């Protein structure tokens, strides 16, 4: 029977092929020769040895390489289409089985061809056999490689063969000069750069493979040290650069701050007092503050932000607070306006949903300086918004904003700086507002340092008193009726409940449908209660109406998609049900759960899940049951997911460390920090040359990104 012909893939023209390869390399972040050289292997294959087929068959199911001559090559059709190639050496025969193959392989592996094949060779019923071996056609007596064969991280459409060649070529061209002097290498007990890189790409067969694998080999240590040194240098330079910029000193903690504190219905916690002092100190300086305020959900960041704003206003400047959603911005506006307006502060409000006329009025107030405090969403970063004298920028839930959005707000030119050419000329003189970012997603300190080049961190590590701990249970969704009964009971006791439906990333329509169905189900099951529904598709006014009814206690049960994740504050809500909790990430579950436990009533969070649970989902739910400490949760999240995913590719981008691991390489971080300090502290020509060569090698154009 003739083999059915497979159409060979059309060959693209050479130029576009090169282009697509370049763009595929670019996707991996490989632009320059040095990028390629620093693209280090994931693992290695040992092709330095050939064993006989007989020996290979006796080695159990371990990986071996054999060499033989093809004695038969045919396509079989039963039980499924496959290519069966038999090779033989003096000791025996080996069957190579390919379930996926190209028609051209029958020609390539024609009878009489000599091949080297490497794979997991098993001793089967019909003799030695290997499925999908790596193989190559060789001439008799062809020399074996003397080094291990690297396997590189590869993007789609990039073959190992292509990458190996590209990297080997780059290694020929690249400038190898060590960025560290022999004396520095000796002092740090580090391998020379070139030796380390060459060893990692092509290790000799006698290398300690285990040390390569766990990256404890001296060659890896050198790579990690260099990477960390670049990071530390860049970080310290960014700090220096920030200190060289001008900001308006906001020295006054005056009447407004005092009056504000006096009218607050509570006293600040110790942790709040501490961070307020840290921020206040920064605001006095004449270079811009860049501080991240971390505090668990409910830890009371808003009042800290308001106090920072008060200091700016007291000192005669404007402050702006940007929140990621209208719901949250609205909540901040109401709360802060209620605090501040009685004290004579003009608070303006600007979001995308304002009517044109209202928007213009708000903009006019902002531009004239009449608005002392401005609260809103990303509508604030539009070009048409001009501040009279902006002293302080506050970004709530900062991780919800892109780097660009945060920068846009900070870079708001204020009319005080003048416009047009004058402003361009005065650019270097222009002042930068102080910046306070807030986040309830605690980023471990070490990780924050790699993510943000230059950032001070304040932490609120204490919740306001009088909170009752939240009890968390995981409940199989087949016990839904019990959960509904529980919601009913809570409402009869005068409480309110959230019922959260998961984000369905593939389809907003589907998400809406689930939320609507849940809403209908609950409305039917709880006919004596008022059930509300809020989701992302509602118009702002409609959302607001539902939220208002819930805040006022008129609505008992709020069915919500994750729009409520951020910052919503309704202290009377003490029960939260999270539908399909297994689909949420840990930090998201934690954020959601933070919506309850805000009042004095004992709060409960029920995590409804669909069994069977996967391993990671199980770990997550267990973590949620075991702790309500956001930092602990972040730590476990980091363990479960690893730092790359933890920050989200969207945010972390190139800033992430590739080689060093902050958990296990802390000792290297310390050493790199010390050397960075010395190099910058003693700016001799030699040290300066080291710094610039090192940064150019390791960061190249990426350094700009890190400066953000
Ligand atoms: P988050 O840090 O999550 O933004 P909020 O600022 O919304 O937290 O504060 C949560 C709740 O705690 C609010 O109702 C706030 O008024 C209240 N709160 C803040 N600080 C204190 C305090 N020191 N004592 C009592 N309640 C406080
Ligand atoms: Mg908040």
Explained architecture:
The protein has 708 residues and is an alpha/beta fold. The protein has four domains: 43-164, Beta Barrel (OB fold (Dihydrolipoamide Acetyltransferase, E2P)); 175-234 and 672-708, no CATH class; 255-460, Rossmann fold (3-Layer(aba) Sandwich), CATH 3.40.50; 470-649, P-loop containing nucleotide triphosphate hydrolases (Rossmann fold). The protein has 28 helices and 22 strands. Strands 6-7-4-3-2-5-8 form a seven-stranded mixed beta sheet. A hairpin with a 2-residue loop joins strand 3 (82-89) and strand 4 (92-98). The longest helix has 27 residues, at 218-244. The protein is globular. The chain starts with 13 loop residues before the first helix and ends with a helix. Residues 301-302, 396, 567 line the site of magnesium ion (MG).
